[in-house]
Amino acid sequence: MSDTSPIPPFIPPQIPGQNRPAPNPPLGDNPGERVPIGGFVAAIETMLREPRRLMYQLRQQSAGSLILRLLIIAVLCSAIYGVVVGTFSRGVQLWAAPVKIAAGLLVAGLICLPSLYIFSCLSGSQARLMEVFGLVASLLTLMTVLLIGFAPVAWVFSQSTNSVPAMGALHLVFWAVSTFFGLRFLTTGFTHLSAAFDGGLKVWIAIFLLVVLQMTTALRPIVGTAETFWPAEKKFFVSHWIESLK
Length: 246
Known about the structure:
Oligomer: single chain
Number of domains: 1
């Protein structure tokens, strides 16, 4: 018997890029994802906890009622956040700010919907217009639900400062965080729809951001007061921000 230890087997080096993550399973593989979503609270909880279930339900023929519930949630949440925004100036802004925020988000989503559908078709995606509409509705809903989470913080600052630029910057930060998570949900949804149009999606995201930012100026004042409900002068949002800071 020899005292020498056995020679370990030769293990070839790993090839870079060989250990790639496994692709996501198709929507509906999990039986829980096929359970219908009923009610407004269930729709919010599913979006936050089970996004794949929501994406699967948006691909069904009966997705119209779910999309309608999502839009109603987006309108209600944006209106509630608008009331918090209006507490900064009070008076007319208590009802004007909710109307402008809710209408601005819905109009921005509808304006950007056709370009998103065209980009998805050019990329080879088989997503129907209703599915794309559902993803946009989910984007708006998630944004507004997250804004509700920021509402108590916004209320504290609105009651403790008189600076319009400071409050405007704070609301923009909250909006940016909410939009980031909403766009991430939208991107994940298109991944499940086998839409590999990274370039087109990035262009659409830039368009959507510009449209929403311009809405904040086209519907001004949202923070602060003015003599008229609608602005009498047309402005680009960058120019409006610079003038507000001055």
